[in-house]
Amino acid sequence: MQSQVKDHENYLKSFEMLVANSREHQCMIEFIHTVLPDILARIGAGKNTLNMMGLGSGSGEIDLEILKVLHEKHPDAKIEVEVVEPSYAMLNKYKTSLSKMPGFDYATFSWNEMTAKDFENKLMKENSDKKMHLINMIQMLYYVKDPEATLSFYQSLLHKGGKVLVILLTDESAWARLTKTFQNQLYKDGIVDTLTSGDIKSFLDSKKIPYQNYKLQSLLDITQCFIPGNEKGEQLLSSLTEIIDFGKNAPPELKKEVLDFLKNPENYQEVNNRILFDCSTEALVIDA
Ligand SMILES: C[S@@+](CC[C@H](N)C(=O)[O-])C[C@H]1O[C@@H](n2cnc3c(N)ncnc32)[C@H](O)[C@@H]1O
Question: Domain of life, per the record (predicted)?
Fold first, then answer.
């Protein structure tokens, strides 16, 4: 069984599938337009240039939404955007979408096709004194070897008054329970797929780092996972387990265990004959 994360084309398809079948992006966009504006208004007030960084930006939908709000709150400032994303497939999609969207002439983009760790090493090597007003890490800290060290390093790049925005699955979500239940069988490759917002909150509390937190409720429609041979259901199973062609490549016993987990009434809710799986996230807005 191979992890999807390193297969860029496969991972992009899988990610698009999740976004299309859940409210994950919608609820992030609501948060960006309701809660974030007041927070962003207080960042870098009066500056001519603002610096924003996206780590694991994916194909950029969420980063661009944040960028629009940052601009609305600081209409006279130029915004320099540093994009750090290891997947060429995600970066290509980001660049293509951007090229089709007018109205971003206040922003300049630097593209870094690399992991958060490689970008950290690059900054260290260059002896960079780069400082940021806003750094976001949305649904990406699962994929770094040491999430706390990554967070600490990037938090150290903030200007006074700057913010790091982290979004991760909540402890209470059924998806977090899935990752914890199958962590030894599915989520390997040295990544911390079992990470939740609760782990980061415990870390921040232990370091007495101030933050605000907001729950973002999201459900994923997994009805088709229970129709044998259904193509979309098979793709969703691969997305949930992050295994390439999970249905074909997983041992039958493991496939049965995963389906039994999903079918357990503790792990889903039924609404209008649809089976909905809780993939709620939590946003942490962390101080400098
Ligand atoms: C679940 S997607 C989230 C994408 C985007 N932030 C969003 O919410 O729409 C995770 C992203 O993290 C990226 N990623 C994986 N490993 C990474 C690493 N070590 N450093 C930075 N980004 C990474 C993946 O390529 C992918 O684009």
Answer: Eukaryota
